[in-house]
Write a structure and sequence with these properties.
- Two copies of one chain form a homodimer.
- By secondary structure, the first copy, chain A, is an alpha+beta fold.
- Chain A has a single domain, classed as Winged helix-like DNA-binding domain superfamily/Winged helix DNA-binding domain (Arc Repressor Mutant, subunit A, Orthogonal Bundle), CATH 1.10.10.10.
- In chain A, 55% of the residues lie in helices and 15% in strands.
- Chain A contains five helices and three strands.
- Chain A has a three-stranded antiparallel sheet with strand order 1-3-2.
- Chain A starts with a helix and ends in a 9-residue tail after the last helix.
- The relative contact order of chain A is 0.17.
- At the A-B interface, helix 1, helix 2 and helix 5 of A face helix 1, helix 2 and helix 5 of B.
- Chain A binds a DNA duplex through helix 3 and helix 4.
DNA sequence: TCTGTATTTAGATATTTTTCTAAATATTAT
DNA sequence: ATAATATTTAGAAAAATATCTAAATACAGA
């Protein structure tokens, strides 16, 4: 909730890579973890940060927890950046 | 240079506010500092991080150092995010 | 119910980041 | 050259973040 969390979540390379992995489709926590040289606990920590920022959401199924990308928040961040790029140049008014 | 630096630079609320201030036009380090309840040294630290990420550039003039927004890097970050939003949905091919 | 697998939580440690104070540098003006 | 102002740099302290190990939880299958 809030930009602060979104940007913080995006600021870590591991978390960005997780998002890229999820671009191709949902993955379980374990599958995500197998892409990194880190303990499952650490991956869980990162997933939780992404979840709190609503960049991903989870889906419990059987013995697994699947994670999926939530693109709507990505959009919000882009909007903030777009405004920054926006009407900053004195020359091009309005 | 590189996404890591860009995202890290954007992850701090003080630095984001500095960028927003610069949207309206260039400001000296002192003018930027006066918007925050922090020492000049701390502001200088943040400006340096933004500078290294090439989100701003400086312009020395007289006794002052003026800072300006560099929107081209903002664009790069947006591009990364756009790709994340991109072809992630199984349904909408291509 | 017991065992095994997937994942998270708790607590500790290590690393990184943010902030401060004090000193250094640079530039202007007298 | 000296004094004043603007800003940065250095070094230390405080705060936040990332990582690990070990234990806890949740669920599935025998």
């Amino acid at each position: 909730m809030g930009f602060a969390e979104n940007f913080k979540a995006l600021s870590d390379p591991v978390r960005r890579e997780i998002l890229v992995l999820l671009k191709k489709g949902r993955l379980s926590a374990g599958e995500i973890g197998s892409h990194f040289d880190m303990t499952g606990a650490t991956i869980s920590y990162h997933l939780n940060i992404l979840k709190k920022a609503e960049l991903i959401f989870e889906n419990r199924e059987k013995n697994y927890i699947y994670y999926e990308l939530n693109t709507s928040v990505v959009e919000e961040v882009m909007l903030w950046l777009a405004q920054l790029k926006g009407e900053n140049n004195d020359a091009e008014k309005e």
